[in-house]
UniProtKB/TrEMBL annotation:
This is Polysaccharide deacetylase. It comes from Deinococcus marmoris. One of its GO terms (cellular component) is membrane. GO terms for biological process: carbohydrate metabolic process. InterPro entries: Glyco_hydro/deAcase_b/a-brl, NODB_dom, Polysacc_deacetylase_ArnD.
C-alpha cells in the first residue's frame, strides 16, 4: 500500500519517542520539517498594472508592467491566429516592442511572448511561437539585428500546432516535502530527514540543510525563468551583490534561453526543476528520467554549465525519484526556510517569516514569479547580513 504523507517535525518526534506515527493534516505553509503558522490577512494575487498601446495592436492581449523599486520592466502577451502564425512574426514582435517603449519611455526592458491563440493555455502551457527580450540599451539597434537574424535575445519555436499534452503540469507551488512510499519507506525517510536537518550535509543524495556550524545560508528560487519577473529579480540581486541557485523549469528555459545566459553571466547557479513541473511520484521511471535528463541536457547546452542540483516540483518525491536523480548525478535539495511568498501574504509577513526561520546552514525557498518575494528580497538580504550570515548558492553552502 502506498502512503503519501508530509514530512514534519511533530511526526518525527512521535516516532522517536516510540509512540507510533499517525498522519496529521498538512498546514498551508510549512518549512521543511516544521509547521509554520499561516499569518492573518492572506491576500489574492495583486493586480499587475498594464499599459495601453496607441494605436492599439489587435494581437496584443495585454502588456503588464512591474517594478522592483528601482527599475521597471514590461511583458507583452501576443496571441495570433493560425494563419498569422504561418507568416513572419519578427515584424509583429518589433512593432509591439517599439509601441511598448513609446507608451512608457522609462522602461528598462521590454519582453514579448507570441503564442498561437488556439494553443495558449497560460504561462507553463504549450510553448510560445516566438519570444523576445529588449533591454533599453538595445532599443535602437534590436530591430535591424532581429531582421538580419543576428539578435541574440530572441527565440523562435515550431510553427506547427502544439500536440495535446500527455502529462499535466503541477499548478501547486512548493509548500513542504511530501514523500510517497510504503509505511516502512516513509519511516526511514523521516529518520533521514531528521538527521539531515540536525547534522546538515548530503545524506543519500539529499540535502536538507548545510552545516549547522556555519553562519551561511543558500538563497534559492524555483520555477525560473518567468519573462515578467525574472529581469527584475536579476536586477535586484545584481544591486545587492548577492548570488542564488535557480531551479529551472526546462520548458521555460527552452522558450527564454537568454535569461539562463543572463543568470550564469551574473555568477548564479543553475539547477533542475524538471521539464514540465510535474508531480513525479505518479510517473513511470522512464517519464521521471526524461523529465530530469532532458532538463539537464537543455540547461547545459544553453549555459555551458553542469547541473548538480535538483528540486522536485511541489516537494513531492519518492524512492524512485531519488534513485533516478542520483543516477543522473543530481543531489536532491529541499529547504529549511519557506516564507510562503507564493501565497501573497504581504511583504511584511514574508520578511517576518524569513527572519524567524533564519538559521546556520539554512536553505531559503523563494519563487521567481511571486511579487511579495520580489519586493521583500532587499530586506531579507539586509536582515541576514545584519545577523552575520553569508548568503550564497547551494554549491557554496558549507557541508
Amino acid at each position: 500500500m502506498k502512503r503519501t504523507l508530509p514530512l514534519w517535525t511533530a511526526a518525527l518526534v512521535s516516532f522517536a519517542a516510540g509512540q507510533g506515527l499517525s498522519p496529521l493534516p498538512a498546514p498551508k505553509i510549512t518549512a521543511a520539517g516544521e509547521v509554520q503558522l499561516v499569518a492573518p490577512g492572506q491576500r489574492p494575487s495583486p493586480v499587475i498594472p498594464t499599459l495601453k498601446l496607441t494605436p492599439p495592436i489587435p494581437q496584443v492581449k495585454t502588456v503588464e508592467v512591474m517594478n522592483n523599486s528601482f527599475t521597471r520592466a514590461a511583458h507583452a502577451l501576443v496571441l495570433v491566429s493560425a494563419q498569422e502564425a504561418q507568416g513572419s512574426l519578427v515584424a509583429l514582435a518589433t512593432q509591439v516592442t517599439t509601441a511598448t517603449y513609446r507608451a512608457d519611455p522609462g522602461l528598462a526592458e521590454v519582453d514579448v511572448s507570441i503564442y498561437r491563440a488556439g494553443d495558449y493555455g497560460g504561462f507553463g502551457g504549450p510553448l510560445p511561437l516566438l519570444t523576445l527580450s529588449v533591454p533599453v540599451g538595445r532599443r535602437t539597434t534590436f530591430a535591424n539585428e532581429l531582421k538580419a537574424g543576428s539578435y541574440d535575445r530572441a527565440w523562435v519555436g515550431a510553427k506547427t500546432a502544439a500536440p495535446a499534452p500527455k502529462l499535466t503540469p503541477l499548478d501547486e507551488l512548493e509548500r513542504l516535502p511530501v514523500f510517497a512510499g510504503t509505511r516502512a519507506e516513509l519511516l526511514a525517510e523521516q529518520l533521514e530527514q531528521a538527521l539531515g536537518l540536525v547534522r546538515g550535509g548530503v545524506r543519500g543524495g539529499k540535502l536538507f540543510r548545510g552545516s549547522p556550524l556555519k553562519r551561511q545560508v543558500a538563497l534559492t528560487f524555483d520555477d525560473v525563468p518567468h519573462p515578467m519577473y525574472f529581469p527584475l529579480l536579476l536586477d535586484l540581486l545584481r544591486r545587492e551583490k548577492a548570488h542564488a541557485t535557480f531551479f529551472i523549469i526546462g520548458r521555460n528555459a527552452e522558450a527564454y534561453p537568454y535569461f539562463v545566459l543572463d543568470l550564469v553571466a551574473q555568477g548564479h547557479e543553475v539547477a533542475n526543476h524538471t521539464f514540465h513541473h510535474l508531480r513525479l511520484p505518479g510517473l513511470s521511471a522512464a517519464e521521471v528520467t526524461a523529465e530530469l535528463k532532458t532538463t539537464n541536457e537543455l540547461i547545459t547546452s544553453i549555459s555551458g554549465q553542469p547541473v548538480q542540483y535538483f528540486r522536485p516540483p511541489g516537494g513531492d518525491y519518492s524512492a524512485q525519484t531519488l534513485k533516478i536523480a542520483e543516477k543522473l548525478g543530481l543531489t536532491t535539495v529541499f529547504w529549511t526556510d519557506d516564507p510562503g511568498d507564493f501565497q501573497n501574504p504581504g511583504v511584511e509577513t514574508v520578511e517576518a517569516r524569513f527572519a524567524r526561520r533564519l538559521r546556520p546552514g539554512g536553505i531559503i525557498l523563494l519563487h521567481d514569479n511571486a511579487p511579495d518575494g520580489l519586493m521583500a528580497l532587499p530586506d531579507l538580504l539586509r536582515v541576514a547580513r545584519q545577523r552575520g550570515y553569508v548568503v550564497d548558492t547551494v554549491g557554496h553552502l558549507p557541508r
